[in-house]
Design a protein that fits this description.
Length: 278
């Protein structure tokens, strides 16, 4: 009888051991970042190790060797459309990010193989692009390995890799102008014309300023109590050379903003008015 009870207890303990799920934090946390560059997204998935008091570059990460650039599976970018990196056009798709760190120069690699664990199976013939950049020394230590999107514009973003006291950077560039202009032209054929957005795009990208001025005037007609439209109208008209009309637009925008106590556009229209008076 005693033997039977003991057998049941042992069997139960073994069963619990098999079925129990141990939840432990990852030593290198996994993160995913999505960044819009123009009208498409770039997605980055990578693991983030800590220094944990170790000397990283030159020891933990040897100089002159291919590095997974993070931990676990190689860091990976997914591009929704063709981009330009390192002077080369990269088709839409997912690519592994690897690097070769050195004291005075890093090699940046985008590999067509984004499923590598570490860099143990890396093959140079799978490179989509390879180029070199210069590292910089940071004034303060970065404990957790970080890849960030910086200096984001409608046409580009800088990718910054930082860890320990080192940073390296490279740019992702896109050329979406033909697609965007075609979409504006098509939208202008419809009933609801995007006068305001189109005028902003033309102004910001140094396109036909006369057309931008015509469009922002039409946008203002459709919403005369919008201080933000007045502000952009002033900016665009000033760039087109019509200083008097630019002053008038900013003055109207300022008055509207004051009535609604809109601090942001009180400031912006004041600045626009001052610029138009110069």
């Amino acid at each position: 009888m005693k033997k039977s009870i003991l057998t049941i207890i042992l069997a139960s303990a073994l069963s619990l051991g098999v079925n129990a799920q141990v939840k432990l934090p990852q030593a290198s946390s996994l993160t995913e970042v999505r960044q819009a560059v123009g009208i498409r997204n770039v997605t980055l998935k990578y693991s983030r190790p800590n220094t944990n008091g170790r000397v990283v570059f030159g020891e933990l990460v040897p100089y002159g060797a291919v590095w997974r650039t993070g931990a676990n599976t190689v860091s990976a970018f997914t591009f929704e459309e063709e981009v330009s990196i390192g002077g080369k056009k990269i088709p839409a798709g997912t690519y592994g990010l690897l690097t070769i760190p050195n004291k005075n120069e890093w090699t940046i690699i985008l590999s067509k193989n984004s499923q590598q664990w570490g860099s143990y199976t890396y093959k140079q013939e799978e490179d989509a692009v390879r180029f070199t950049v210069k590292p910089t020394t940071l004034p303060s230590k970065v404990e957790t390995f970080t890849i960030s999107f910086d200096n984001v514009t409608t046409k580009s973003s800088t990718v910054t890799i930082t860890w320990e006291n080192t940073a390296v950077k490279f740019d992702i560039n896109v050329d979406q102008s033909k697609e965007i202009l075609a979409s504006i032209d098509q939208a202008m054929q419809g009933d609801k014309k995007p006068y305001f957005q189109a005028a902003q795009y033309y102004f910001s990208n140094n396109l036909d300023i006369t057309k931008a001025a015509e469009w922002v005037i039409e946008a203002d007609k459709g919403n005369i109590e919008a201080p933000w439209i007045k502000y952009w109208k002033s900016q665009i008209l000033l760039k087109s050379g019509d200083k008097k009309a630019a002053q008038q637009a900013a003055l109207e925008g300022l008055e509207i903003a004051k009535k609604s106590n809109n601090e942001e556009y009180i400031k912006l229209n004041t600045n626009a008015l001052n610029n138009a008076k110069k």
